[in-house]
Amino acid sequence: MLKSEARKLFSKKRKEIPYQQRLKWDDLILIHFQKLPLLDIRTVLTYAAMDVEVNTDPLVDYMLFRNPMLQIAYPISDFSNGTMQAVVVSQSTSFIKSRRGILEPDPATAVAIPPESIDMVIVPLLCFDKDGYRVGYGKGFYDRYLAHARPDVIKVGLSYFDPIDKVEDRNEFDVPLNYCITPERMYEF
Length: 189
Known about the structure:
It is a single chain. Strands 6-3-2-1-7-10-11-12 form an eight-stranded mixed β-sheet. It has a two-stranded antiparallel sheet with strand order 4-5. By secondary structure, the chain is an alpha/beta fold. Helices cover 23% and strands 24% of the residues. The longest helix is centred in the N-terminal third of the chain and has 15 residues, at 19-33. It is globular. It has a single domain, classed as Rossmann fold (3-Layer(aba) Sandwich). Its cofactor is Mg(2+). This is 5-formyltetrahydrofolate cyclo-ligase. Its EC number is 6.3.3.2.
């Protein structure tokens, strides 16, 4: 399946999931997420879920419960140059909606960290394939960011759907996931 076809199809499929079903699937994804090997994870980059994305808040709560010293970072995207930076947050960090409607930490109170300092990235996606390649929203923010991360950074996707056979129009800049978690199971690549 081509990325453009996948974006259209899975955007539609996600919007059709009833709210109560999404809540149930979020719980199942959390159960599978708890099976991840989280040893030596000190800093995690995650995202604030929009609309019908998998809710990342329970995952963050679980990781902080397991390791209260864990640093949690969220992205701030710059659409003018197609880049993003990770910023560490705390309970006092305020979040604001960007011009694009994305919930991000307030840049005035945010502390940026280099990509090399991140141990795990929870990567947003619309769908993924059996080889761990994801289809995102088409702007390439995460692939560009991950190109600067350590080679051993753990990349985790979250999806309400099982994988497609193959993203046919992959390119050399696409960064595959290490894991993708669905309500049914955890995929390891």
